[in-house]
User: Fold these one by one.
Assistant:
Number 1:
Amino acid sequence: MVKQESESTNRPDNTAFTQQRLPAWQPILSAGIVIPGFVLIGLAFIGIGVALLVTSRSIQVLELDYTGDSNGSPCSSCSQSVIANCKCSLNFTLTTLFQGPVFFYYGLSNYFQNYRRYGASKDDNQLYGDLSYFTSPSSSCSPYDYDSSKKPIVPCGSIANSMFNDTFTLTWTVNGTTNNVPLDGKGIAWWTDYNIKYRNPSVTPLKNAFNGTVKPINWAKPAYELDASDPSNNGFVNQDFLVWMRRAALPNFRKLYRRIDASGDYQKGLPAGNYTIDITYNYPVRAFNGAKKIVFSNVSWMGGSNEFLGIAYLVIGSLCVVMSVVMLIVYAKFKFPDEE
Amino acid sequence: MGSVVSRFNRVRGKGKSEEERRLRANDRSFNLSHGYANNAIRTSKYSIFTFLPLNLFEQFRRLANAYFLFLLILQLIPQISSLSWFTTAVPLVFVLSISAVKDANDDINRHKCDRQVNNRKVDVLMDGQLKNEKWMNVQVGDIVKLENNEFVTADLLLLSSSEPLNLVYVETAELDGETNLKVKQALTATGELEDNIEALAAFNGEVRCEPPNNRLDKFKGTLTMNDDIYALDNDKMLLRGCTLRNTEWCFGLVIFGGPDTKLMQNSGKSVFKRTSIDHLMNILVLCIFGFLGFMCAIMAILNAFWEASEGSLFTVFLPREAGIDAHLSSFLTFWSYVIVLNTVVPISLYVSMEVIRLGNSFFINWDRKMYYPKNDTPAQARTTTLSEELGQIKYIFSDKTGTLTQNIMTFNKCSINGKTYGDLYDFSGQRVEITERTERVDFSWNNLADPKFSFHDHSLVEMVRSGNPENQEFFRLLSLCHTVMPEEKKEGELNYQAQSPDEGALVTAARNFGFVFRSRTPETITVIEMGKQVIYELLAVLDFNNVRKRMSVIVRGPEGKLTLYCKGADTIILERLDPSCNKLMKLTTNHLNEYAGDGLRTLALAYKDLDESYMKDWTQRHHEASIAMEEREEKLDELYEEIEKDMMLLGATAVEDKLQDGVPQTIEQLAKADIKIWVLTGDKQETAENIGYSCNMLREEMKDVFFVSANTAEGVKEELLNARRKMCPKAAEEPSVTTSRGGLFWVEKMETVQDEKVDGEYGLIINGHSLAFALEKNLRLELLRTACMCQTVICCRVTPLQKAQVVQLVKKYKQAVTLAIGDGANDVSMIKAAHIGVGISGQEGMQAVLSSDFSFAQFRYLQRLLLVHGRWSYIRMCKFLGYFFYKNFTFTLMHFWYAFFCGFSAQTVYDEWFITFYNTIYTALPVLGLSLFEQDVNDRWSLQHPQLYTPGQKNQYFNKKAFVRCVMHSCYSSLILFFIPWASMHDTVRDDGKDIADYQSFALLAQTCLLIVVFAQLFLDTYYWTAINQLFVWASIAVYFAITFTMYSSGMFLIFTSAFPFTGTARNSLNQPNVWLTIFLSSLLCVLPVVAFRFILIQLRPTINDEVRAKARKEALPAPAPRRTLKKRITRRSGYAFSHSQGYGALVMSQKFLLKGHMRRLALFDHRDSPMVQNQPQHYRTITEESESQSP
């Protein structure tokens, strides 16, 4: 090459970047990587799948529907009446120990908490205890922002208004004696919801903060009376309220109601015996073909019972192995690229 | 201030167009009253104040931007706003500001350029004295003084000059690209003003002329001076953009200033070129709009059903808003889904495409292998929006002179008296290839020799020096028979000004061999013959023209001997020889054939002794004929014919029209890449044919080369038909034209002439006259059909307009991507017409480069531009598009599936902030990394396997089919991505029994899965992982988690209460093993089928890319291409070619020409025109050699 460095002011820089010679890793889908890769992934998936399935199978779940659609069911009368606090009860028997810790859920189906307008219908500032939003709730709460007499609703919006208001008590009958099973309602909501997102206004007594506001239309009592006995579980930081406000992603969902307090007889879970759930039936779901249920469940390291993941891993793992065989055959037949 | 006034006036004047220009010299107030533009130019678009509104307006004229503005407005309507306003506003502002920054930068450069030009200084005559003024302050009607080598300030009427006859010489390279000097002459009446300042200041001539226009070769006007009216034409005009040469000074009157000058009028708006990908993109975007509308309609209908069956029952908990019933609700749902699903039309698509193209343009600018060190010229991508089209070229239209050739002639061989000189033989008698290192003949004995001349055959010098009479006569002829002008600035430093480079080469050869043409007057020629000064009396010049194909001079030697020396085309000369030299003729003919076979340009030389009395008679008749009023030409021709016969043959010369380095190899490479090359040249048929052979486009192996040169439409048709029938006897008479519809809304009708298969290779050479007929409506399809059957097409003698027509013909009926490459102003039209125009830079003319899209210094860089950069750009763009659509469709379709679970309520699957950042932050850089650095194989492999280029021509990597595949793939991925999380989350809880199937956790899970799958897909698509790619991907993943955790942190909620409602979601769900197992599962389920599919596809149907990649993996570097030696050709044909047009014979003989100061300077041409100056030793390298030597 002619060397004319002196006048080469326009000569481009000779760097790997400008000359597009950057060192690079150039992976290629070669048989040596793809086929063993599929085998390995397949085997790993089968392993994970088995583990997941075993874990999932070990979880005990008990589901009891109490909607009362059919005439024979215990709550059918309540489901048809419009009386508030209608009582009905549900019996079930455990033949063996229900391994603890046991969680007590209520479940709703065909319930669209994920409907866009429903989900937007709340006021985060109000729920954060900002008093200025008590008097003028966000318009997103409409039509539950003001009542008919133009008084602001606190907490406003559809979500709060539609809060689940059935209550349950659980009794255990063994040897003729009936014991109330202790239920623990503390810490059933997310820590961040309880400590960060939701706050009561710092006014004592709490009731005063709500002056000039009205309770949500569907509520029996105002927010400051949700749990009058425990100030740390009252108002916006009431655990049941928090659980409800964390809206579900899908139309069929369950929400944590209580934990079985692991003390005394219940240290290991729910012992065998006959149980009765007394239900205060308030929540109407039949209008929209919904269903209500009670779920008892324990958990494992991978959360609640879900067989899907285990099965999926197993199926896909096997498919991978099958696929690797297919690819091996194809490769053996065509041999591209000709290696050695 | 002046410019403000003039702009105001221009604005005012726009209403009524100027019909006639009237101006008076030295009368500013009169001229100002017409409001003509002054000499300030403005090419910039914006000023500081107008930038924002104008630029925004420009940007919103783009469909995509307007669409997003529309979306933004939709989002502000609370009833349908399914997304917060910022999800569209943030990306839109981001996109707009990137474009704005780019526009601002461009405009600042234009401002700088304007300022530099406007601030040039010139002497203006004001108030009776010359003042140095800025260009922008020059007004119409001012008189300016120009000095040698200065740029012409504005369009001037030449008044007077320092040269005799009021001549000035100008170089018009910047205007029309022609490098030879042009002569302009002032009116005698104004010429008398000379440089008398007082007279000039008193000059009050009034000019009436045509309004500003863009015709460079026409000017019409009158000058009224002291009641006399003079006609003005183009010969008296100095146009802006020219440079004054060889003229000490001149005065001119400003006629057109600034924007009105012909230069600026010509520079007008250049056509905005769009690539075929752009067109495809427009169609796809429309399809996507349709698809979007379709999806939204489905959603609206399903919403109506849902409202009827579920929603109306659900009103207990979710009452409808006042005044909205089920029907209205479904209508609103439509618009809500338009907002939610808007991301199928990716907002950052256009801006990303711009960035990619810009990046690829920079890589072209930076490429050292396209940098030409000799004149320090790097390659330049002047249009940054076309890079991927370089990978799809199907037809190349090339100029010849200056593009394929260097426009340098070298005297290579000669045949004297039946003996050939110029070849070197080794001891065994084998011909030796002449290279750089071959020893050159020493001419130091001749102190007038041109040091740059090189010759390798010593025997010729020995023969001449030994006094061989034939050899001496041979060079004497070369030193006498020409129209070259000598220039001797210093004693012994001769420079020749030749009209054609062939002539320059021949005279220089004679000079070095001891017959130095030293000077000429109209009557004499002074030659230094072997050191002795000899003066010949020049009696007549029988000038060259295209019919005669020869030129002769008649001289009287010092001893009084009368001789006619003649040189010309072999076919012509050999006919006119004395029968006595039959034997010599045979030998010489053999030599001529040999030279022709080597692709050299040949001339035969002959002489004839004349006797005094005949000459006297002939001179008398010649004089009569030359003043005859009728049939002067014919009479002269007759006389010439009469005297130029029975000549004695001296020999023949062979001049090499030097090809640029690597031209044959480049053409071969491009042919292998299935690119067709058509040469369109203004040269004559012989020259063009000659070059066709020497650069390997026409080959001996070709079955036939057809010539179309008829002068009637029927004749042309006949010739075309014959050629076609010969090539393809079975073909149907009518061309098979497929008509299809395309373009936006399928309104464009497209006709495509199908390619037809032909056995063997053919060549076609078509003449300019014939081309004119062939381009007529009824013949052009026939032309196209025949031409496309041929491997090589050469069009000679074509006008610039025809060049453009040919390009357009192919563009229109072949639907193929075309590239035009040229260096001169005559190529501008085709450069502008083709999809891609390439200018050869580093030459003097700038017009071609200025209107080109890409420019570089050597033709051979074209292969790198296309086969490496073009191919990469195309691959990158296609990968980018495929991936980008995949990424956005997958992202968007998730909303669609979710709709079935949320009552078609336009609920988004993801957090709004994720939607905002997805395209702009999370995935922007990895995609750019892919589309800037991707290479399937490196440059050497790309050049080694030109076949890799063909998928681009066939549009294989990204087309409608690929788009549909991409959408299907997205459907699959989005189904997996939605339903796997759905199935694994719908009924589960955290490991502490708390809720995890809530909306926010689900959103987080879905978006994390999506992002990981999208990156995994990127991983599969990227073949070339540089550190930057790795950095981009890992950094983007890190940034995603960092931003997510930050946005979902308690702190953010405490600061901005309602802006980030997802508080705690990340830490509450991403610590769950089943969440990660779900992410893992869905990612692999998306990726594995793709891997398996691609693997099997490679096994079953490996593409050329797969093969080369596999090969590149095994061998580190491609094997160097074997060096090929030039094959000897044997076919008989004439090698005559001479780039000479009707010459300066008359001027040379003109008495007037040397009227004044003939001792001073005799420069008709600026010395830089001399090809000899440029005749530096050239390296001849093969391409592989070069790439090796440049590797580190």
Number 2:
Amino acid sequence: MGYTKEQLLARLKELEIDFAQYEHPVVLTVEAALKYIGHVKGAFAKNLFLKDKKQRFYIISALSDTKVDMKVLSQRLGLGKGGLRMASEETLAEILQVPLGCVTPFALINESARDVSLLLDQGLRSQECCLFHPLSNDMSIALNTGGLDKFLKSIGRVPAYVDLEANPPVGKDQPPDLASFVPSAAIVLPEPSEKEAVAQTANQNQQCANSNSATVIAKAVKQNKEVKSDKNEATNAKDVKDKAGHAVSSRRSFANTQHFVDEVLDKTSAIILSEITKETIKEHGDQLGAVVSDNIRKRLSSELNNLAMIFKNTAYTEGFHAGTLNRPHHF
Amino acid sequence: MGNEKEEVKEEQKREDEEDEQVVNPWEVSAKDGGKIDYDKLIDKFGCQRLDSSLVDRVQRLTGRRPHVFLRRGVFFAHRDFNEILDAYERGDKFYLYTGRGPSSEALHLGHLVPFMFTKYLQDAFKVPLVIQLTDDEKCMWKNLSVEESMRLARENAKDIIACGFDISRTFIFSDFNYVGGAFYRNMVKVAKCVTYNKVVGIFGFTNEDHIGKISFPPVQAVPSFPSSFPHLFPGQDNLRCLIPCAIDQDPYFRMTRDVAPRIGYEKPALIESSFFPALQGETGKMSASDPNSAIYVTDSAKDIKNKVNRYAFSGGQDSIENHRKYGANLEVDIPVKYLGFFLEDDAELEHIRTEYGAGRMLTGEVKKRLTEVLTELVERHRRARAAVTDEMVDAFMAVRPLPNMFY
């Protein structure tokens, strides 16, 4: 489900990104890591995994000396004064799929982290090399921000560096300057009892190219009709359902030929059944076949064309995506 | 057409026409808060009416029913569209160019109109399409940050893709990503042909406007030239371009058509639409800050029903008796106008217009039908939008060849 350290390193090599790797015993903090690889030339990044009150998540990746004031950051994001908190251990595992102490921008390679926003300290850019965990705490890799950017772009992210220590005023005439970093979608997590259901549907969705753990989770939420006692969660579940839930069950089928054919046949059958009635048989007699055939064409043409276009675009995208991953070229 | 220079000079007479309606890419307002006079606009701009003979010709050439926007006169003006059809008949293809300024996240139905029509043109004529997202323009005019405007461009791209464009013949690009290379070389060629005075005359710039704005017009002009896209049209410098757009974009392309022959390029042809009215009526302004002035693609069925019932300006009479007596004023009735855009069935529309105009049908019925039509449209869009992934956006926006663009 989540990427492994080996898979990440292989991907970095594929993308021809230069990096050095250092193994060390498992560490949970920057201080602990320094004991083993303090000699390495490069700046250790500290990484924070944060969430806001609307279940949106953020990774802040900064130089260890950069002062990150959560209150200021919260305001700059437009979340008000106390809008940001550290995310819980569970969400770390669910969303970033990395162990404790291992928050890293590389976790964004996981589909489950698709809606997590990334803020990078501009201070990282001035460093020759920066050190991050590659999805596991028993190793650190050193690369420059050029390499990090290349990686981020390969997973469809736009690398954006900000001055994390800045404290610009935020008010009526000064909109929050980091508002664009707020994710457009919240991530809803199921209650612990639903984890089994999630695991099952997740396995089913393993095969499809467009599978997305966040929407798998949303599907689990949708399937579980239990009303949550927490009003916030219920509203968020509804939001996610409206945004993605309605289409979740069909998200698997956009380039799946069986589903496509089923949908075409379903729609056609529905029309045939509605058009062949006692009245219409009486009215058209022998000609009913021709009449129904005509009506099917008239009523379904546009809709089926739309379906087919979605199918075509999805299939093309899958091929294109696979092709671009294989060749480490940029566009 | 030698009268292009005249048309451009016309702009300098704007000073005399302050009482008149104003139509340019950044402002559209009717005279005295009334309705836009399209005949006057066609006269002033110097474009042609798209008459029924052209619509019939389209039907013959494409072998299919012309799009509802053509049948209802939504796309009502053009420049050189007949020449495009002449060339097409001879076997010479063309490509389509349209675009959007990504200034807000939410798209409403008015925004979709040019894209719906462009999709039809792409399918009917089997031609490639380039879609420009002018994130730089919005960054400058709306004072958005570069990151925000780029983000909006990507978000808007998803809704645009959901209109059903064919990925094997569509290239979407954002200025911040694509400007450079051959595109930029064409921009400079165009810029050299437009004096400061002229651009001020066409677009109404003032001494207080920053230089970004003043040098922007070539960015929107050069997608009309195939050499701006060497990965798409290598060696096809004579490929003609057809631009479907709303008529307020005409000034950009008048300028482009004036410059084209001077730099050895073909003039782009245009096919232009009237403005999509706000829910509250022709005189109302559709604005992003008033969510009730338009139907958004993110509106739920409940929202749509609510908006249509409460805010759609009705041309019906104030009482049922009066309504049965005098009938509805179809000139100002918004539900009927919206049905004109989105109700496919010509016969049904005619029936509604006749019955409602005579007072035999009530506003409630018309609004109910409109709600159905709009809900179906928005639902279809939402389903298509759900299928658009970030990878799909990347693929549409990738600089890649389109080998099957004419098939």
